[in-house]
Write a structure and sequence with these properties.
10 helices, 32 strands, alpha/beta, 5-stranded antiparallel sheet, 588 residues, 8-stranded parallel sheet
Length: 588
């Protein structure tokens, strides 16, 4: 099966050869380890050194642990790339992120051409107190059968503003030392990925290119001069951050022709598995995080200290789970994506959001009393806080994002009508009012990466006076609050609850991840018929005889019990269910 998957990926890569970097790397989502989440330059005790890098290399080839009954190393499972991040370079001044009292302070965070980590000959300068022999480090990794990656266009000591670029010198330095891959960050001036790719290709040495914030593949043509590209911001070991980073991949995946594909993968950021704080939800969070990265075909780049025995013991069953890794590396024309979010339990609260003006009860009875915006006899006030909401998808296009409703508490803040405007004052006499505003949703997957926005109810400044502005409302005798610009009505609607993410594994198999995005218990009776179809998939049981479908749990390898075609998901804070839907085998 793995050979078929690899051959399919190779065929896809060949079909896209003219549109991607010609290095034959990354036909399946890359795996490995990178230093930043474990070793940085922010704290003295975690400063990146050559010794740290060598220790991670040893950990990657360690075969003392079992995978399905056999002793295996992480390297044997594909985690055979050990890569450094920022902090290896010698700067000409002391920066905020890497304080060196022996050097003059860098003004204005290095903008304006004040900083450089290149010498007079244009070559990168290595900080030898941390990396005494960079060539020996690379050779050491190669001697263990590993590939070694470096980091350029650095953020610490960034060569920004009017700084000179050093593309050719950097490529010569990298290849001369024997590096196999590079993360090209977006802080310094060398942001031209096409130029990087051309220079690396000219060396005839395949170099794995990780693009960090220097653009995405061309939307129209798919041209992709990198092997994976960052879609999100900097990650942290927090499920709010994890889910937000996963959202960032949707615009590259949920397309008629996904731009996340073999040889050119959308990458939310490094994994934080192993870095979550102790607590009752630690295991659930790390499983949910890993499951998300697998179901969206994210590169799996570890970011914890692999020599921390306690951490490694805890996460080993997660990061080496063969079913999860199979889902990650499978390719059947789509990398996987968010499908939809189900309404949250009423116990989680409600939001003020938009809906059609059809007279339903949740749209009626709005009024302002004693400075509070209320609906009917509800004791819940509309609060000035926005809610977390997912992006719309082609499977779920009507996504509403509004203002939170909650218990009315004593406050100097108040709502009031001013003509057709509904204004909110925060209680600070120095602050002016903000106006309730509505914005239509947007989803056009054939236009560009950016035509994807949930419909929103927000608080904004009050510059608009027109009766057709997004801040103009009409309050009817029935308490219907109608937007004069969009024609929608405001309503008390559920928050967003358990989310479904999915990925096709083949014509007859679809991986599904149900994840609870909040820190409260949630439950869902998941109808298997909601499992999405993708181009080329044909799971016959989803067309009618749903109970004949099988849902096999990724973590336990057991079939999940069903109740008339539904799977029960009772999920704790940030917990998830990860399973593969297929047809039941025919009885002999």
């Amino acid at each position: 099966t793995n050979m078929i998957l690899l051959c399919t990926a190779m065929l896809m890569a060949c079909l896209n050869l003219a549109l991607a970097i010609d290095n034959g790397i990354g036909l399946t989502p890359p795996r490995g380890w990178r230093s930043w989440n474990a070793f940085d330059c922010i704290q003295n005790k975690t400063i990146l050194t050559q010794a740290h890098m060598q220790a991670q290399m040893v950990a990657a080839v360690d075969k003392s642990r079992l995978v399905e009954g056999s002793r295996r190393s992480l390297a044997e499972l594909g985690f055979d790339w050990i890569s450094m991040d920022d902090g290896w370079q010698q700067c000409n001044c002391s920066t905020r992120q890497d304080v060196d009292p022996k050097l003059p302070q860098c003004p204005n965070l290095c903008f304006g051409g004040h900083c450089t980590f290149h010498g007079a000959d244009g070559k990168p300068m290595v900080r030898h107190d941390r990396f005494p022999d960079m060539k020996a480090l690379v050779d050491y990794g190669h001697s263990m059968g590993l590939k070694v990656g470096t980091y350029l266009n650095n953020c610490i000591c960034m060569e920004a503003g009017s700084s000179t670029t050093h593309y050719e010198e950097d490529v010569q330095w990298m290849v001369g030392l024997g590096f196999d891959g590079v993360k090209i960050d977006g802080c310094s001036n060398a942001k031209n990925l096409s130029r990087w790719a051309d220079l690396f290709n000219a060396t005839h040495k395949p170099i794995r290119i990780e693009n960090c914030h220097n653009g995405w593949p061309d939307f129209q043509t798919g041209y992709c001069p990198m092997n994976f590209f960052r879609t999100g911001g900097d990650i942290s070991a927090d499920m709010g951050s994890i889910i937000a980073e996963a959202y960032s991949t949707v615009s590259a995946a949920d397309l008629p022709e996904p731009r996340s594909r073999p040889g050119c993968w959308a990458y939310p950021d490094m994994s934080e598995v192993g870095n979550f704080p102790d607590g009752p939800s630690q295991l659930d969070q790390e499983r949910s995080h890993w499951g998300l990265w697998c179901v969206i075909s994210s590169p799996l780049i570890l970011g914890f200290d692999m020599n921390n025995t306690a951490k490694m013991k805890r996460v080993w069953p997660i990061i080496t789970n063969q079913a999860a890794l199979r889902i990650s590396e499978s390719w059947f024309g789509h990398p996987g994506s968010l499908i939809r979010a189900y309404p949250a339990d009423s116990s989680q609260g409600f939001q003020l959001a938009q809906t059609s003006c059809d007279g339903r009860p949740e749209t009626l009875g709005w009024h302002v009393v004693d400075g509070k915006l209320l609906q009917g006899d509800s004791e819940q006030c509309v609060l000035p806080d926005g809610v977390d909401c997912p992006p719309p998808t082609t499977w779920s296009q009507d996504v509403q994002c509004g203002l939170r409703m909650g218990k009315c508490l004593p406050s100097n803040a108040r709502w009031q009508f001013n003509g057709s405007h509904l204004q909110h004052f925060d209680g600070n006499p120095k602050d002016g009012p903000q106006c309730l505003s509505v914005h239509k949703g947007l989803l056009d997957v054939r236009k560009d990466y950016y035509s994807r926005k949930a419909a929103a109810v927000t608080l904004e400044g009050c510059p608009h006076q027109s009766t057709t502005s997004p801040q103009a409302f009409q309050l009817s005798d029935k308490g219907e609050l109608r937007s004069l610009s969009s024609g929608t009505c405001l309503a008390k609607l559920p928050l967003h609850g358990i989310q479904m993410w999915a990925k096709p594994l083949g014509a007859k198999e679809i991986a599904v991840l149900l994840v609870n995005p909040i820190a409260e218990n949630q439950s869902l009776s998941f109808p298997l018929i909601d499992t999405p179809s993708f181009d080329g998939t044909d799971v016959a049981c989803l067309r009618g005889n749903v109970p004949s479908c099988v849902a096999k749990d990724v973590w336990t390898s057991r079939e999940l019990p069903q109740d008339f075609g539904h799977v029960s998901a009772s999920l704790g804070p940030h917990a998830s269910m990860f399973f593969v839907v297929s047809e039941a085998p025919e009885e002999e």
